[in-house]
């Protein structure tokens, strides 16, 4: 009988070496992936399944609104598309501004939209608790309109103090939000909807109304080409904020990944398609 006592140890050594090489090969292959894919793969592996809670406002057409009992809109469609691309399930919850902020600071919400204008700095964001994404979802533009037969031209925001301004009643916006948007404290007259605001302006009950900064929208949707743009507001950038309270070390990784996905969606036209589907006009809601 041939002796095999020296073969068995050699076989075991070979088997163990091959097992180590297989694991090492898998690690090396992972490092050949783009950094973003490595990070996302590690992140999903450590925190699978990916589930996130997003706080958002409601009844603000065309950004979010009810259609046949379903909540839809620009923001909703962008959320669904962006987070589906990274295999994350989302739970969108709707609050007014005060309650949404309370839920956020209580650690019950992972992500919320943040609005930046030249009058609004990051002063109310605690960098130790939140991370602001660098890529906005979209940029919204609005303007103040006067009647053609009583044309008003506003050169600076302080000129607004002498006029009354009709606005659509937005339950989730308090006076602080309105004043921050305009940079001054307005004499604001709230209306139930935009049609009533236009009627109030034409009847002389208010001097100005707030509307989308695109005359084609006003003429097409409301049939009142008797209005003139008096003042265009600073663009509002809408970006996402990620909570370190709930996401911990994932917050910065997720913010970077979402920034990458939003850039891709802008480049290939998907976000523009969403804007056009809900707004049917891209002059006042844009991607840049």
Walk me through the structure.
A hairpin with a 2-residue loop joins strand 2 and strand 3 (70-72). The protein is an alpha+beta fold and 288 residues long. The chain has three domains: 8-39; 47-136 and 236-286, 3-Layer(aba) Sandwich (D-Maltodextrin-Binding Protein, domain 2); 142-232, 3-Layer(aba) Sandwich (D-Maltodextrin-Binding Protein, domain 2), CATH 3.40.190. The protein has helices at residues 7-31, 35-46, 74-85, 97-105, 175-182, 194-202, 215-222, 244-247, 250-267, 270-279; strands at 50-56, 65-67, 70-72, 88-94, 111-116, 130-132, 138-140, 142-147, 164-168, 187-191, 208-212, 227-232, 236-243, 285-286. The termini are far apart. The strands form four sheets. Strands 5, 6, 7, 13 and 14 form a five-stranded antiparallel beta sheet that branches. Strands 10-9-11-8-12 form a five-stranded mixed beta sheet, with helices on one face.
């Amino acid at each position: 009988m041939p002796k095999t006592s020296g073969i068995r140890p050699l076989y075991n050594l070979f088997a163990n070496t091959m097992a180590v090489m297989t694991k090492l090969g898998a690690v090396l292959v992972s490092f050949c992936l783009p950094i973003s894919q490595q990070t996302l793969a590690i992140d999903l592996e450590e925190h699978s399944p990916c589930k996130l809670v997003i706080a958002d406002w409601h009844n603000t057409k065309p950004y979010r609104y009810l259609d046949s009992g379903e909540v839809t809109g620009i923001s909703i469609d962008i959320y669904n598309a962006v987070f589906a691309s990274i295999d994350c399930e989302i739970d969108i919850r709707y609050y007014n501004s005060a309650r949404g902020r309370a839920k956020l600071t209580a650690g019950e919400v992972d992500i919320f939209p943040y609005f930046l204008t030249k009058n609004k700095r990051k002063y109310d964001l605690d960098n130790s608790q939140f991370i602001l994404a660098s890529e906005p979802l979209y940029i919204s533009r609005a303007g103040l309109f006067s009647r053609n037969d009583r044309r008003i031209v506003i050169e600076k925001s302080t000129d607004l103090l002498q006029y009354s301004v009709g606005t659509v009643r937005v339950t989730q916006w308090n006076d602080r939000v309105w004043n921050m948007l305009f940079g001054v404290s307005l004499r604001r007259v709230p209306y139930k909807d935009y049609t009533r605001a236009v009627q109030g302006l034409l009847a002389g009950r208010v001097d100005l109304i707030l509307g989308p900064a695109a005359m084609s929208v006003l003429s097409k949707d409301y049939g009142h080409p008797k209005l003139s743009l008096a003042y265009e507001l600073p663009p509002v950038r809408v970006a996402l904020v990620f909570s370190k309270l709930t996401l911990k070390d994932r917050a910065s990784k997720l913010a970077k990944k979402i920034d990458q996905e939003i850039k891709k969606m802008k480049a290939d036209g998907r976000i523009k398609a969403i804007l056009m589907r809900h707004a049917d006009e891209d002059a006042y809601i844009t991607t840049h």
